[in-house]
Amino acid sequence: MEILDKSFNNWVVWSMGISIKIFSARSGGLDQISMAEVKLLGFWASPFSDRVIWALKLKGVNYEYAEEDPHNKTQLLLQHNPVHKKVPVLIHGGKSIPESSIILEYIEETWPQNPLLPQDAYQRAIARFWIKFGEEKMATICAFFRTAGVEQEKAIEEATKLLKIIEEQGLGDKMFFGGDGIGLGDIAFGWLAYLYEVVEKVSAAKVLDADTFPQLHAWIQNLKEVPVVKENLPDHQKLVGHLKRRRETHLALLNFHN
Amino acid sequence: MAEENKVKLHGMWASPYVKRVEIALKIKGIPYEYVEEDLVNKSQLLLQYNPVHKKVPVLIHDGKPICESLVILEYIDETWKNGPPLLPQDPYKRAKVRFWTSFVEKELLENVLLVVTSEGEAQEKAIKVVFEKLKLLEEGLKDLFQGETHHIDGENMGILDIFLCSLFGAHKAQEEVLGVKFIDPEKFPLLSSWVTALTEVAVVKALQPPHEKLVVVYQFLRQKALQPSADGVEVKEGVYVRSLSRSSPS
User: Fold this and answer.
1) A interface test, pick of B30, B62, B98, B103 with most A CB neighbours within 10 Å
2) What residues have CB less than 8 Å from B10, skipping those under 6 apart?
3) Stated pTM of the model
């Protein structure tokens, strides 16, 4: 008797699920859009690509991933991001959305489950402020990667100042930039948690050390424990090799100019 | 009661970044108190409200500061839902608007500033880049407007309109000082008709400084950048508004 009840319940749930799907498809509302095919054009070593992967996975969105070679861009990429010709590009139901920060906002708005931005407008403004800050300052924070000697020392000083601002004023006492849980701010700063240590390693520099940045360090540990992040990081050794080669190119250019 | 919803804007009369916020506030019909900042001698309040960048604009709502013009515009749109929307409802349309707004900011504004603050070969190069970017924008507008005529008035201006007129509202002054016509109806018909329509909107017109003042602004900026100075030359927002704060608002 019990087994029969269970299977009856299952049948009811299953048929309701089908009905909901049919209803959504016919109503042509947000459900239909959010259920359309999602494709991500990315590059394995790009933190901008990784951000989008994390956001999609945190939202439980199924997507197809296509690897792009930056030195041999596909027609698909050129078609879907004709202005910048860069990854990541999200293609949703045939529509192209380029630029990672824009993609993140799009994902947040299209799939409202598991919100990655606060509800309160003021808190959202704070989150967006820090996302913008991180983007604008990323090149400066990583400038020591492209320099050597005295220039590198100066770059390390600059990076330290900016990281201090991020730690003290952006993160503060919070566990995550998003508060108690991971948010778009954490996703946007995620590169600090895994990419930066590789940049430091290949540049023979230490900037983000635990003594100088205790809160950022705690945040890095916390972020790396989030399952979606833990399971979706590029291979460390591969990244070391990749950035080693990039650094060699930068150094060669510096020598050429000198 | 009056204090509860109080809105203050710390700004500087010649700053295009501040202009964006003013236009947005006026479109939404939000009453606000304007505080003119002397950027050579910044107020304690400004330093307190924007400790990270120490820049204008800063919007203060109910005592809470919001910085960065685009962040402020999104905040305004999300907080005051009664006025005309500054962004479309549909997420894909919002993404497109955000994309072109970012393009105007990063690809156009930066390069126009470069043209203003450089000369000779460097300036020629920068001018070429601006024309390339304008061409991309013109193409983008075809997709954005999708063949429909984009009718602009005070009721349907959004963040892209606001960003565009904060840059090219002064196009005639730019032309006069630089001797280069960016908003050229022959080269960029869609863009030119759009910019012209924007500058005619009552709200924009009312907030636009007079042509002569804008000419002085651009001349001053140019002179300052081309003169070697003790503290070095920076082609950034900081220098732009710092130099301008020496000229008076009226």
Assistant:
1) B98
2) B35, B37, B43, B45, B46, B49, B56, B57, B58, B60
3) 0.88
Cα–Cα distance for residue pair A30/A34, rounded to 1 Å = 6
To test the contact with chain B by mutation, choose from A110, A129, A130, A133 the residue with the greatest count of B C-beta atoms within 10 A, namely A129
Compute how many other C-beta atoms are within 10 angstroms of the C-beta atom of residue B34: 14
Q: From residue B31, how far is each of A32, B7, B11, B201 by CA, in Å?
A: 41, 7, 15, 19
Each residue of A73-87: pLDDT tens digit?
999 999 999 999 999
Long-range contacts of B178-183 (CB under 8 A, 24+ apart): B178/B115, B178/B116, B178/B218, B180/B115, B180/B127, B182/B112, B182/B130, B182/B131, B182/B134
Measured between CA atoms, how close is A106 to chain B, in angstroms?
6
Cβ of A130 under 8 Å from any chain B Cβ? no
Q: Which two tokens stand for residue A21?
A: 């799907």
- Answer whether A83 sits within 8 Å of B78, measured CB to CB: no
Per the CB < 8 Å rule, is A133 touching B52? yes
The phi-psi region of residue A163 (left if phi > 0; otherwise alpha if psi is between -120 and 50; otherwise beta) is: alpha
Cβ–Cβ below 8 Å for A122 and B64:
yes
Say if CB B54 and CB B204 are below 8 A apart. Answer: no
Q: Does A28 lie at the interface with B, CB-CB under 8 angstroms?
A: no
Percent of chain A exceeding pLDDT 90 equals: 84
- CB contacts under 8 A, B 131-150 vs A, are 136, 140
Residue with token string 């020591």: A144
Interface contact flag, A105 B70, Cβ < 8 Å: no
pLDDT recorded at residue B82 = 85
Give the Cα separation of A245 and A238 in Å (integer): 11
- CA A36 from centroid of its chain's CA atoms: 22
Residue (of B27, B31, B67) closest to B47 by Cα position: B67
Inform me whether the pLDDT recorded for A1 exceeds 50: no
Nearest to B25 by CA among B86, B95, B99, B97: B86
State the amino acid at position A65 in one-letter form: Y
Minimum distance, in Å, between the CA of residue A126 and any CA atom of chain B: 7
B79's CB contacts (< 8 A; 6+ apart) are A121, B61
Chain A residues in contact with B63 (beta carbon < 8 A): none
